[in-house]
## 1
Amino acid sequence: MIDDDELAPLLEESAEELYEHAPAAYLSSLANGTIVKVNQTLLDWTGYARDDIVGHRRVHDLLAPGARIYYETHYAPLLQMQGSVREIAVEIVRADGTRLPVLMNSTAVTDDRGRPRVVRTTIFDASDRRRYERELLRARNEAELRARSSLALDHVYEAVVLLDQQGRVEVLNPSAERIFGVETATVTGKPAADVLEGWEAVGDVPAGACPEVVLARHGVQEQWLAVAAVDAGDGVVYTIRDVTSDHRLEELRNELIAIVSHELRTPLTGAYGAAHTLLARGDQLDPGARQALLEMVVEQTRRLSGIVDQILTASRIDTGNVPTAAEIFDASDVVDPLVRDRGEEGVRVVVAVPEGVLVRADLDRLRQVMTNLVENALKYAPGTVRVALVQEPGVARFTVSDDGPGIPASEHERIFEKFYRLDPDQRGGVSGIGLGLYIARELVTRMGGGIGLLPRERGTTFYVDVPLA
Ligand code: ADP
């Protein structure tokens, strides 16, 4: 046991110790602000010697300029009015000019007439707290920024995929979900090569290189993708755009140039050769040979104008510039031109179309479609071409049948695409630019009807449905 006599001096000493080395800085000042007492902690924190401060400086002098103004305009008046001020955040300037964020608390000690005699100030180091607040603010800003970037990612047209260094999916935006046909939740954290169909082609694009257009396959579907890859340090960001339709357009343009230049050249050469021979040696030829050459000029120029007409019609269709009438007429009116003026070929066309079936369509356009089908049949099939008409619920159905090579079922839809031909190299020796059926379908659809192929064992049967009047 320590007795009181021993304890008293110890406590006295330790009170002083406590004051000097407390975890807070203490400072006493007069009413005019002059500092009259400080503890060691304050000196340690600020780097001043006791004599630099005590009796020489005012509280005001220790503060950074901003804090000084605040002290003058708020702190001191508040202290005077309330007798105390709590937890005010200011900055103290150290002897070396650096700043120390602190929290200041002051209490005014008054005399018995209520006049302030001395002000006692306790100062806490707020560096940690300030750092914490700054960190909190930074984290909040960062979180907001992230939220905004992810909002932007959700709405960009391009697909964005972020893979980690092991090639696992970290981020996948909605455009990427659409391109790969997946949902973020089911693929995140999994290897892209396993969960994104067609990724092999995309993943082959090296980071940092120029964007590349690659062909990705999803089962039977093909997609052309423009891919740019960027190394993001701890992963790779892929930006992907679906350029399938651009690619298809580009292909179409190339096809158009190739086909048209080839298809125009053949009749041009024929017509030119025949005309040239007539010009150079016409008078030496017998009438039969002259007649044959003249017929050749007519036939080839007819072909040329047919090709030009098809290209123009197709381009008008593409720009939506092909109006179709809704006339009411007898379906049998359509068939006349199918046989007329066909000379020997006309003999091959057998028409079985009853009179008296009234339809609502565009007569000229419907004739154009039927002529095209008959010409195709004459072109691609030897033997008889049969044109028939039957009445079905709501529609009149024309059919054009031949016993030629037929069209495989897998191609029944594709032959209606622009420039699509079963024998693009024309080894069969039959010319054509692959626009006829495309135009036919577009026109029939505009008339409110339909066109397609009926299943056949041998040969081909096209049908054209138009609404009954
Ligand atoms: P083209 O100018 O090549 O005849 P179309 O669009 O009219 O163009 O026809 C497209 C393709 O469909 C043709 O190239 C041909 O391969 C095929 N085709 C059309 N009609 C027939 C038919 N009656 N028999 C066989 N093949 C046909």
## 2
Amino acid sequence: MPSATGNKRVKGISVFRPFIFGSEAQPFDPEKRPANIPADHTHQWRVFVKGVNDQDISYWLKKVQFKLHETYAQAVRTVEAPPFEVVETGWGEFEIQIKLYFTPESGEKPQTLWHSLKLHPYGPDAEGMKERRDVVVSQNYEEVIFNEPVEPFYEILTGGTSTGTPAPSRGKGKNNKQQQLQQPGRTAEIPLSDSPKNPYSRATEAKELDRMTEAIKTVDQLIKEEKERLVEREKYLAELRESEGVPAVTKKR
Ligand code: SLL
């Protein structure tokens, strides 16, 4: 608890840090099945928490606790240092609880995420993927937001303002713009373009925004057409009332 240690919070500042969490899974090749795994295990898989483009996140993330299905021996796995991952084999899909523990200086409580382990291909080319025994990736981009971090943690997050990082403008209130301070290795920046290893980039973000803008336009157009139809129907109804007269008794619906 930050208040207990007497640490002051940096007012009006939110610092966010991006990360990726998810899983990769691959079925065993029957020809090259490792000898020492149980006969009913069909896949090898990996669940992980990592930085975008493998950026270091260990300065804010202290440890990660993965809670596997109870069919696993020692279902709770704690990883104290990067890579924050668990490699396993198994036969079934299940929900994995992922608990993020932050650096002690943060004074922050742990945060819990859930990930659905995916072993089986999904999406348009699921059949092809299955035939080729492709790796099944299921991962999400996420951001952790530290609202008004305590000063020592703020120093850690930003790499220290005394080393030449420009002091952030400290606006008022919770809606103050989140800071993206550039310090080698300690940054919230995501790459400009994606690469085969990393799909999360400014370019993919821009594409996604374009898709959303297009979708909003389509929905607006549909609403417009629907409203026009409604106006026409009401007009027709008014005409009918005019020509046929309003029935004296209207049936209850
Ligand atoms: C299912 N509800 O029925 C899920 C549970 C559990 C998967 C999946 C453990 C392997 C072992 C394993 O793969 N558990 O060590 O026995 O699909």
## 3
Amino acid sequence: MKTDTPVTIRRGDYAPPAYLVDEVALEFRLDPAATLVRARLALRRNPAAAPDAPLRLDGEGLQLVEARLDGAVLPPDRCRIGEDGALTLLDPPAAGVLETLVRIAPESNTALSGLYTSGGNYYTQCEAEGFRRITFFPDRPDVMSRYEVTITADRTLCPVLLSNGNPAGSGLGDGNTHWARWVDPHPKPSYLFALVAGDLVNVADRFTTRSGREVALNIWVRRGDEDRCGHAMDSLKRSMAWDEQVFGLEYDLDVFNIAAVSDFNMGAMENKGLNVFNTKYVLASPESATDGDWQGIETVVAHEYFHNWTGNRVTCRDWFQLSLKEGLTVFRDQEFSADMGSRAVKRIRDVRGLRAAQFPEDAGPMAHPVRPDSYIEIDNFYTPTVYQKGAEVVRLIHTRIGPAAFRRGMDLYIARNDNQAVTIEDFVAAMQEASGIDLSAFMGWYDQAGTPELAAEDRYDPEARRYTLTLRQSTPPTPGQPAKRPLPIPVAMGLLGPDGAALPTRLAGENAAQSGTRTLLLEAAEQSFTFEDVPAPPVPSLLRSFSAPVRLQGVPREQLRFLAVHDSDPFVRWESGQQYAASVMLEMVAAAQRGEAPGFDPALAEAVANTLAAAEADPAFAAEALSLPGEGFLADQMAVADPVAIHRVRQGLRAEIGRRCGPALRAAYGSLAETGPYRIDGRSIGRRALRNACLGYLVAAGDAALAKAQFDAATNMTDSLAALSLLADAATPAREEALAAFHARWRGDALVLDKWFSIQAMADRPDAIEAMRQLYAHPDFDLRNPNRARALIGAFAAGNPAHFHAESGEGYRFLADAVIALDPINGSIAARLIGPLGQWRRQAPSRGALMRRELQRVLDTPNLSKGTFEKASKALL
Ligand code: ARG
Ligand code: ZN
């Protein structure tokens, strides 16, 4: 029953395109069932390609109506559509104008790649390979063209007609139609093409660039959503100003449009001059969006805007270079958010995210370098490794050469590569030239998968007042890369004296005094650093600000406790507290596995009390410090994970802390109550986070009524949802009452309804699987909507480890059933959701066998999408 094995694309096989397309004219006549697309391509043979290379245009599911070359109809024996849907022109000229007319059906496009409809409106998603589902084209990022787009549609159904670039005319057409033309003066690859049309309304604003260019800003939404665009617009204007100030980069068109759509595979897309966004990253009001949602909007709006230079003006030669634009743009949005709020808290959250998603990926069957070597389905490589680890690697370079050289490097990178499709080497070369520092070894970070492990050993000689720090690195093997080499690891560090004060950090051979944070560069597998004139035996503070994406191991518990209180670096203070708690909790898990009572370390309650006492200075930081390490973080540190034991231990510990610190938690909870109107500044967000962290402990200790009272009184989504998610775990009638009230109030709001599904999917209930099956059958559940599918299925598999990994294997079966049902509808989302089953090697053999059985069942499904095939088959290797 097996269909052909999908082909593997390899980085080493890159060849330049046979033909280039200088100009493209597209004409759309929109219709849900039969849209016509006429494309005129000015083609010419690429001087860099073989002179006899065939003219082949990608296509997928296109119905060809006619093809002409320089005006003459091409007979069927000169153009052939292959098995894969691509069009090959036999006997091609060296240059010419190829015109094709194709028919497509956007209303039946459930994959949401190419041109599709959502709520009766038209949207496109072309990255990575969606343009070939719209017209025949060399659909690869190294073919850059200037686009002119004319859209014709019914005036009543589609009053708004948008595409990339600047508006260039509009008018009435035949019947009840009208048309609009858009011209994008900047050459771009096909993945940045966009079209949006339909009955939309806009929120408008303006931005004046620093050289005086007036830019019209618009956010396009469905009628009724206009009053929830303010934060996205404000984030956009701040992003535009920040990129001018920090990187000297100005916007380059007369208009910048954002369109929001509720059916969208990813977060958002940076199409030139016409970003398309998941509504989740546009719409927000205090009643309907959490503080996390507000921060997500700011980040994603900035990210897509920053792509205008890092991605659009300078793009990728091929998809293996994806991190060239994604890693760099994530780095830029992280820096933006750090500048907008608390840098330390932002760093802590980013590291939390990296560890929750990227570290496990690096330790699993899909582990791949930041620049992968091969893929079957490129959609599967929009990963935490390419994005978040890619950003960490850019940060390594930033740390290594310093901010001033980094800025010069960016200027050089853009000046030299503007309007070109380039590689990661081009980026590193610019940084190297601008800094004069040899960065060749840093390429290892792009090409080697796996998370390096870092260990320290030290020795103090009181006589000589000399301190020697020895650092060692090693990286465990990953699929296809059995042997690893050492990588350059910048280790930002300091030394603390017995009272916590900073000690000098002058290395042997240096003359000038050094104090505060300095950065050591570990280049070999093992290296020693000798510090002179150290007056007392120091405690080393390593990896300040998380200066490299590595696992620092084996720091003794006494040092962790000391650093958590005394270090000057907020990241290390937070980190040391987390590592201390993690080491205690892992011991408790081991005790629980032996059937012993887990015991309690009073230091954990002390830490909570100390955090609360000092919380006023920085409530957001206190909230981070108060949160115990997550279940995934703990599982990731066990040779064989035990998700059920981890969950029980963590819950039990929360209850114990809640009991022991009850009065202090209650006092903090009371004093943090909001007075006055809802505000979303950093301090207010921090206070809410801290207050809800306190609530969590108090409810764990038995006070479910407090959660119900907060839920009933809440005037913002953050407080409402925090209370509801705690109630969802509680065995009290208030649970059903609150869930029903929430559903009744929000049933008309898709984004909030997603939260209602997620909370239940993550709930710790004895009947969790049965509840999942009921939610799956709920009239409001819709497998076709990616947000809804993620809210239920994704939240369960990734956010409810204790029940996903239920001994019975029912959790695995539920996920596999959902993936099999979803795959024919939207293979991209199905492939994403299957991920957690790939982690079977980390589970006990009994669980692993059940997981493999479900992976095999998915793999045996006929006509599986390429993407799901790749994930399931690689997981089983
Ligand atoms: N370039 C987009 C972003 O990160 C993501 C688009 C990914 N699309 C996909 N089908 N994989 O901003
Ligand atoms: Zn991006």
